[in-house]
Write a structure and sequence with these properties.
- The structure is a homotetramer.
- The first copy, chain A, is mainly alpha-helical.
- Chain A is built from twelve helices and three strands.
- Among the domains of chain A are: 1-64, no CATH class; 104-211, Cytochrome P450-Terp, domain 2 (Cytochrome p450-Terp, domain 2, Orthogonal Bundle), CATH 1.10.230.
- In chain A, 62% of the residues lie in helices and 4% in strands.
- In chain A, a hairpin with a 2-residue loop joins strand 2 (18-21) and strand 3 (24-25).
């Protein structure tokens, strides 16, 4: 058997009296010593965070836990109505909608920022890169990831706070700068107010913290799994799924009944 | 429309410049102030934890994030092999196996402890209740939730640590006591060493912290979603799914090829 | 290695020029010769159906494909709104709600009928068994699976048709008889009209065709996967998910905005 | 409320004594009259198939039901090991891997064929278009969808059979022609034998039958849901998931135990 054919994982192992996760003794080094967000950092970065990384990464996760009633929480509640005995199925149903439209933009924003700096001509400024990004997206009639919000039109307060925390912890850098410059360039080009939103800020911070594009996608999934458990708990004692079903079915099929 | 027919959620709302989660201003009260585990506590308890609750609840979550290569992480990796573009689908596939066999035992343990104390005759001791629990399960030939472990036969170090942290933070009480007594009674009745395991400890602590049975089930889901992201990231740069597939297919279908 | 430790599947294998499924050459024996319902029968019964079995089994599947707008189709549509690029994720989200409340009743009905005849005293009639079933469920305050329907109060036309087809194809027997007797006994005991519904009829027919309880559960899953694809296709060109979201969010969170 | 804000579905409705699916009375027009494959056609084409369409569409579905032990069936079996009580969750887990790698190629093949003919210069032949397709994919270093197979290197017998059935039923046309020409051109350009595979044939037939790209993706999902139920039934009486888990865990983590 060739070496490449062997199975290998470097995440965790256990023995009679010990569990080791990325080189850390779970019981003696992690439980009671690090918080859940640090453990999430360990899962994706394969090392524990510095205090500064811990502060910013926990804030990024906290930002995305709860969005109220959105399509993914409604999918979870609908699933609960049919399978209340299987909470894991409802959470999974809720996660399945975290695709290109909502959560995908975090990864897309990170990718846009990373690519722009990687292929930037020597001496290019964030402003110049941002103008090029906006121009390219307009020509291709593509949505620019990470900017604009249907509710927080005057600026997404979560993005502002994340950038503040990044500054305070040493993670303000060229990717944050470029993200802000993209929002400004989009405003200048369109006349519309398109502030950096939470996914844009998190995408930029994933770049500053050198976490990679997969983490930019994974953060939303980890955070929403937490929020979905809360929604399913509310649905179980204060349900809305069946009422929504009845209303939707009645309205959407009425035209056929009278055909 | 009757009041019961209206839709109502008490979790979160947002306006032009504000997002409120269970009464807390997300940007000013939560981001940068509470950690991801505290946010998980807020999601399920609908209030922020005390420092003691935060310590124990974060430790419970940290305990369950990572179990190495288990059926649920393998399901996630198999899914990634077919749909690498959809990380949310791989995490969801991994969560779907968190049913009665593995994670369900946390909820079952919590339920067993709660029921026993609720229906206990006045003055009954934990030892007496434990003996009755063990006897009932043996008659019904049912597995007792929360005890025994295939690897950690001399005691699950995670359970010991969780009980230590509970003690240090004021959450040692009659449910922990009963869980330990059940393990002792099972040992006495069967001669087998069946120590309290991590799910038993977490089930007992959910009772001590008054978190309810749904939380006992939800904790494992929240924690594993985090660990699954880490497994999918490893699978994407150091894959094993296709190699496992090839080996399994070859071995399991060979008998038909020669029939 | 012990025999029980080897991996073995008896479903399918392939070679350079051949694919064999449960002993049938896929290309020469199945494609173009059997229909999709027969293939479903082959998957669960591990043999091809007789013409009579084919007629009834196809009808059972056809019955369950489409239920219009129900919680599971709404979960699928909500998922599509977030991840339109991953149709498999939307179908999966829709399937996840096929738990105890809606589809589970097919399996429960089949189980109820099978158990009743297995433990019946010699010479017991369907009427007697039905009365005992109804009495037991009323004492335990449990819902009797397979009877009653919120819309088809005068009798579920699908159940009538399935029983007709069963009769015409030689599958009318004691399980169908008992299912009908249960509906009659429930009517007599409660005064309410509780006719056999589609899940009750399908559960009874799974018993008559000797297909086992897992098939009773699996039929609904296979059929609904087909219907869900149709709903996602409609959602992609005539969407409702975002409109439902907006309405629900507005109504359900308004009370907090004025608090 | 604007017209676009109303909810509307045209799939199905029901009343006291009737269920109507895409204009057909379920009980009187469909049950016992059409097979499961015809019902699948109705779901995606919104009309019943002609006898010729029925023959080819059923064969397309039959082709994709069963692929033996592949990553998606292994994901389903792994899920069953943890949640045997929730068959729907195991089927869903299996479907989640039907993404870009395996099933996605059907849709990609259909798209490639459709685009090529749509943008073809007047008088272009299938051979010319095929050469252009192959050249473009080689320049972009992209895999050409619909050709090549790791096992059926001398030609995928399913593709041959599907094209035969298409010919016999009047669905041989320019898309089938182009798919075959692409395989020939790829062979000429690379020297490798890259015959049309099952997904290429099904993609081409979706174009010939005017079913649209979403159907090309949906066929695989509908068919695999059926096959997955069969795998879960086998897993429940002849399990392999736990044995695979034990082997994988032992091999893949051994290097850490000796570190």
């Amino acid at each position: 058997m060739k070496k490449t054919d062997t199975l290998r994982s470097d995440i965790a192992w256990s023995s009679l009296d010990k569990i080791v996760v990325h080189g850390n003794d779970l019981v003696n080094d992690l439980m009671g010593k690090v918080n859940f967000g640090d453990m999430a950092f360990l899962s994706v970065a394969r090392r524990l965070p510095s205090p500064q990384e811990s502060a910013v990464f926990n804030a990024m996760l906290v930002t995305l836990v709860e969005h109220g009633l959105v399509p993914s929480t409604l999918a979870a509640r609908m699933t609960h109505a049919g399978a209340p005995e299987a909470m894991q199925a409802s959470v999974a149903a809720g996660l399945l909608g975290l695709g290109s439209v909502f959560v995908g933009s975090t990864k897309n924003a990170a990718n846009m920022l990373q690519q722009a700096w990687r292929s930037a001509p020597a001496g290019a400024s964030a402003t110049e890169l941002a103008q090029a990004i906006v121009a390219e997206h307009r020509v291709a009639r593509q949505i620019i990831p990470g900017i604009g919000h249907p509710v927080h039109r005057n600026g997404d307060p979560r993005a502002r706070k994340l950038f503040e925390l990044a500054q305070a912890n040493g993670f303000h850098g060229k990717h944050v700068e470029l993200m802000v410059a993209v929002a400004d360039a989009a405003h200048a080009a369109t006349g519309k107010h398109l502030p950096v939103n939470a996914t844009g800020a998190i995408g930029a911070l994933c770049c500053e913290m050198d976490l990679g594009l997969d983490v930019a996608g994974g953060i939303g999934i980890m955070a929403r799994a937490v929020g979905l458990v809360g929604h399913i708990m509310e649905e179980s004692h204060q349900p809305m799924a069946l009422q929504i079903w009845n209303r939707v079915d009645e309205e959407a099929t009425e035209h056929m009944k009278h055909a």
